[in-house]
């Protein structure tokens, strides 16, 4: 059994995908609506966390 590798996105990559500004992305992280990890000064967002955020937003809108 193989598992898919975890894809980690940078904040600029998330900004591009969501068409949000830097402040908005960091606000989502600060309010724990978007999960992220840090290693030193590097902050990364798992692609699955971005998908979870989008799924939750779509459910809110429905």
Explain how this protein is built.
- The chain has 62 residues and is α+β, with helices and mostly antiparallel strands.
- Helices cover 52% and strands 16% of the residues.
- It is built from three helices and three strands.
- Strands 1-3-2 form a three-stranded antiparallel β-sheet.
- A hairpin with a 2-residue loop joins strand 2 and strand 3 (42-46).
Comma- or semicolon-separated keywords:
alpha+beta; 3 helices; 62 residues
Give the helix proportion (percent range): 40-55%
Distance linking N and C termini: 36 Å
Q: Helix- and strand-based class?
A: alpha+beta
- Cross-sheet strand order for the largest sheet: 1-3-2
Strand content: 15-25%
Mean pLDDT: 95
The main sheet comes to: 3 strands, antiparallel
Number of strands: 3
Which runs of at least 5 residues are low in confidence (pLDDT < 50)?
A: none
Total of DSSP H or I helical runs spanning 4+ residues: 3
Q: What is the H/E order?
A: EHHEEH
| 3D shape | globular
Q: Give the radius of gyration.
A: 12 Å
């Amino acid at each position: 059994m193989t598992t898919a590798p975890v894809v980690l996105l940078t904040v600029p990559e998330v900004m591009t995908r969501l068409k949000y500004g830097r402040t908005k992305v960091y606000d989502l992280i600060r309010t724990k609506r978007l999960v992220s990890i840090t290693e030193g000064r590097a902050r990364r967002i798992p692609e699955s966390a971005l998908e979870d955020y989008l799924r939750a937003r779509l459910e809110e809108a429905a």
